[in-house]
Design goal:
This protein is α/β, with parallel strands linked by helices. 42% of the residues lie in helices and 15% in strands. The chain is built from 14 helices and 13 strands. Strands 2-8-7-6-5-3-4 form a 7-stranded mixed beta sheet, with helices on both faces. A 4-stranded antiparallel beta sheet has the order 9-10-13-12, covered by helices on one side. The chain has a two-stranded parallel sheet with strand order 1-11. Helix 2 crosses helix 9, helix 4 packs across helix 5 and helix 10 packs parallel to helix 14. The structure holds pyridoxal-5'-phosphate.
Length: 391
């Protein structure tokens, strides 16, 4: 038998699933997998059911139904301040993951290099590799995940084609400032690079920080593909609806690829979102306030349990250092052992830090916790952590 494609050689199912199984086996609480299991807002559920009832069940336009793209256009202009001109710049896809995959397929050739910032979101790295491009990582420094822009520039080679930014970041919650994005854009302009920004957590920022889109910076729009979606903002990860925003010449190619891979995003769910997505400001304010309370509980609990915590500025994860625990307790020698220890001793699931780093030595000193849980469940999880590990 001839071998399978080489692009699958290094692909592995992350240990997130194995962790989920172990947590289930002890009837524990999983703060590992980045699944937000809060309910989808009722108006969205109702309008999607209505679309199914009305049999809006055929293929849609490959780039999405017009009413949904109209909403995204208005939102990209007002919330993101992106100077997007028409819905020709918008491609609705199978989640932001579909949007990212079609975006990189549109701009990368095998052998191209892509710079990502470490810790990174694993799908970005694996998808870039799957299309035959090479990942180059640049570290973000603890505790504030700052970047050395000289190092970023030094990492650019004649083969570099794109930079990938995730803001707010998963797993570290870094929210890129306007100044940082401007400095990155300067580098992109000097070396003629694309910027792909994953902004799926754009509405989840803390302490009145502002979410800034690279495409909104003067001269940023032409070389930026902005990726976002509805999964996280509206608790609908399984609906698989996301989108990209880019200049129409780029969007046309992304749309062709979206057609090839998916034909379109799920039509009734597109209608469901388009009919009910225009929420009042209070929806977003309440969501942020709710996550801010959960962030506070999660971070203070981890601190009192002895983890080294850098509080996230956005998104709903904490990347917590295990080094201080390793110094005083058995079972914290590295991320995988620590992950097991937490499940065995208090039934709490987490994700090994090495999933987010190419530098395994650095990665092995972290665990990631997701606090997108119902408050009572998170409180129970935190109580268990405190009871077992409080200093
Ligand atoms: C940074 C980031 N981008 C994208 C996704 C996936 O989003 P979607 O459900 O829209 O594909 C996730 C999910 O965890 C994520 O953390």
């Amino acid at each position: 038998m001839k071998p399978l494609a080489r692009r699958t050689d290094d692909l592995r199912q992350s240990d997130i699933r194995a962790v989920s199984q172990m947590v289930r086996a002890v009837d524990g609480i999983n703060l590992g997998q980045g699944i937000c299991d809060l309910p989808t807002p009722e108006p969205l559920r109702r309008s999607a059911m209505d679309a199914v009832d009305r049999s809006l069940a055929t293929y849609s336009h490959h780039a999405g139904i017009e009413t949904l793209r109209d909403y995204i256009l208005a939102k990209a202009r007002s919330y993101n301040e992106i100077p997007v001109e028409s819905i020709d710049s918008i491609v609705v896809s199978a989640g932001s993951t579909g949007a990212f995959a079609t975006a990189i397929l549109a701009i990368l050739d095998p052998g191209d290099e892509v710079i990502v910032f470490e810790p990174f979101y694993g799908y970005h790295v694996n998808l870039v590799r799957a299309v035959g491009a090479t990942i180059v990582t640049v570290p973000q420094s603890v505790p504030d995940w700052t970047l050395d822009f000289d190092q970023v520039e030094a990492s650019v080679s004649p083969r570099t084609k794109a930079l990938v930014v995730t803001t707010p970041g998963n797993p570290n919650g870094k929210v890129w400032s306007r100044d940082e994005l401007s400095r990155l854009l300067d580098i992109a302009e000097r070396h003629d690079l694309w910027i792909i920004t994953d902004e799926i957590y754009e509405y989840i920022v803390y302490d009145d920080l502002e979410h800034v889109s690279a495409a909104s910076l003067p001269t940023g729009y032409d070389r930026t593909i902005t990726i976002s979606g509805f999964s996280k903002t509206f608790n609908m990860t399984g609906w698989r609806l996301g989108y990209s925003v880019s200049p129409s010449v780029t969007a046309e190619k992304i749309g062709l690829l979206n057609d090839l891979f998916y034909i379109c995003a799920p039509t009734p769910l597109q209608h469901g979102v388009a009919a009910a997505v225009d929420m009042s400001e209070s929806y977003f304010d309440e969501m942020r306030a709710d996550y801010a309370r959960k962030r506070h509980l999660m971070c203070t609990t981890l601190e009192s349990a002895g983890f080294d915590v850098s509080w996230p500025d956005g998104a709903y994860y904490v990347l917590a250092g295990i080094q201080p625990l390793a110094e005083r307790l058995p079972g914290f020698d590295n991320d995988r052992i620590a992950c097991r220890t937490l499940i065995e001793r208090c039934g709490i699931g987490s994700v090994s830090g090495s999933s987010f780093f190419t530098d395994q030595q650095v990665g092995s000193t972290y665990l990631r916790f997701c606090f997108a849980k119902e408050m009572d469940e998170l409180e129970t999880a935190c109580r268990r952590l405190e009871e077992v590990f409080a200093l």
